[in-house]
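pinned: reference chain
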Amino acid sequence: MNDLVRYSWLDKLVHRVAFAAPVLQIALSDVEDGLFRQKTGAVPDTPPVFVTSLPRAGTTALLKFLAHLPGFATHTYRDMPFVMAPLLWDRLSGAFRKRSELAERAHGDGIQVGFDSPEGFEEVIWHAYWPGHYEPAGIQLWTVNDADPDAVGFFWRHFRKVVALRGTAGGAPGRYLSKNNANMGRIDLLQKIFPGATVIVPVRHPLSQAASLLRQHRNFTELHRHNPFVRCYMSDIGHFEFGALHRPLLFPGFRDMSFGLSPDALDYWLAYWIAAFEHVLKRRDAVSLVRFESFVSGDPATILCLCELVETDPSHAARLTKDLRPAPPVSPEALAHRGPLRDRAEALYRELFEGST
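pinned: its C-alpha cells
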C-alpha cells in the first residue's frame, strides 16, 4: 500500500481543480494575503533553511529531523492540494479534516507518511513563476539573473504563512524549513534572493545513491504505467525525478556525459551524480555538506554539527535519532559494477569532503 492509494474520487477531483491552472492558486493566495494580513504581519522574515540534494540522499529523513526541532515550520501533506494558499485551505478544509494515519509512501522505501508528516511542496511555486525552465528534455538551471521581484515577494509571504500556520515548538522564533531536490539547480539564486539562508546538502556515496536512483526510476516507471493518478499527482507537484516524468536537472556536462545512456542504466545515474556534485563543488562555500551515511546512523558528531548549523540546542535532537534508519547495503550487482564513471564519482566524493570532519 502507498499514500496515494488512499485518495478517494472526491480527493482526486479536488486535486485536479486545484492544479487546473497556476493562476487559480496564485489568485487564492492573493485573497489569503488580505484575509490573514494581521496574522502573517506578526511573523518576522527569518532566513530560511533549505535541504536539497539529488533524490535518495536522505532529504526526507533530514526534513523530518529538523522539522521536529524547536523553531521550524514546514509544509505537511495537509497543505495539499492548495499548497500556495495554506492558511486559506486550512480554514476551508477544517470541517472535513481526516485523522492522520501512517502508510508507506509511493516510493516503497519503508518511509511512513500521514497527513501531518513534513513534506516539500514549494516546487509548485517555482513551476508557476518559471515555467520556461521546464523543457521536455530537462530542467534548465537558475542563475542570479533569474531573480523575479514578484516571485521573491510571493515566496517571502508564503514562508510567513507557513510559519503562522504551523506555529513553532516552545514559542521559538519561526523559521521556514524547505525540502526541495530541484533546489540543487538554484543554489546561486537562493543565496541572492534569501540573504542569510542556510543550504544543507546531504551527500550519499555515489554507487549506493545511483543504485537507489535506478531502483526508484524502475519503480515509478511501473507506477506511472498502471496508475495514471500517481503520474498526474507527481507532475502537478513538480516531481520529475523518475519514471515516465523523468526530466533531469541539466547540470553542466551532463548531456555529454550521459550521451547514449538510458535512465535504465546504472551509468546514467552515476553520470547524473557526477554532474550534480561537480556543480555543488564549485559552490562549496555556499552550502553545508552532510554525509548521508553518518546522519542516518545517528552519528553523534554529525547530529551535533547539524544542530550547531541551524542554531538549535542539541539536547532536543537526542529523542529524534531513534527514528533514523541506517542505509541499506548496496546490492551485489551494483558493487560488481566497474567503469570510469564509478571511478570518477568516487574520486569526486572524496574531494567533496577533503579537509572536513
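why pinned: The mean pLDDT is 92. The chain has one domain: 3-352.
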